[in-house]
Design brief:
The protein is an alpha+beta fold. Helices cover 28% and strands 28% of the residues. Strands 6-5-11-12-13 form a five-stranded antiparallel β-sheet. It has a two-stranded parallel sheet with strand order 1-4. A two-stranded antiparallel ribbon has the order 2-3.
């Protein structure tokens, strides 16, 4: 089973950290000058060893990183659109628009207005995805991500 990269990283990191915390009583963290809490050098080495162990176990049971399935970078005028309900699997597509605002204007609670030949990944659905949209994310070529919820408010992060 291929997991999306972000889930795969979270899974192996949490498992490696759990092993580290369970089997080592010494101080594992320190606070850096900038305020970040980090592993000590020794704890970092142990974490990397445990991560390698977790990678092997995940591979043995058929859980792999789906990072190689990552879509190609967006070109100018292309936007990645993900829509869904709550935290369920999103429907996603790459669409063309003249600007981020133009891409946003196509969204409503009833779906995303796009050409009929648009293929939505996850369900193979062709055409506008109308499925009681509760959340949406639109990523522009420069990496700006705009998120929307069913309250109708957009938030942007770089």
């Amino acid at each position: 089973m291929k997991l999306p990269n972000n889930l795969y990283v979270e899974l192996y990191a949490e498992m490696a950290a759990a092993i580290l915390n369970e089997h080592h009583d010494e101080e594992l963290h320190f606070t850096a000058e900038n305020g970040d809490v980090r592993y000590t050098d020794e704890a970092q080495e142990l974490f990397e060893e445990y991560s390698s162990l977790v990678f092997r176990v995940l591979d043995m049971v058929g859980i792999t990183d789906g990072a190689e399935d990552t879509p190609p970078p967006l070109k100018k005028g292309q936007f990645s659109v993900q829509i869904g309900r709550g935290a369920t699997v999103f429907h996603s597509a790459t669409v063309e628009a003249s600007s981020l605002d133009a891409a946003k204007d196509r969204l409503s609670k009833r779906g995303y207005d796009c050409p009929d030949d648009t293929v939505w990944v996850e369900d193979g659905h062709d055409g506008p995805c109308s499925d009681n949209v509760e959340v949406a994310y639109i990523t522009s070529p420069d990496g700006t991500v705009s998120s929307w919820d069913d309250e109708g408010e957009w938030e942007e992060e770089q």
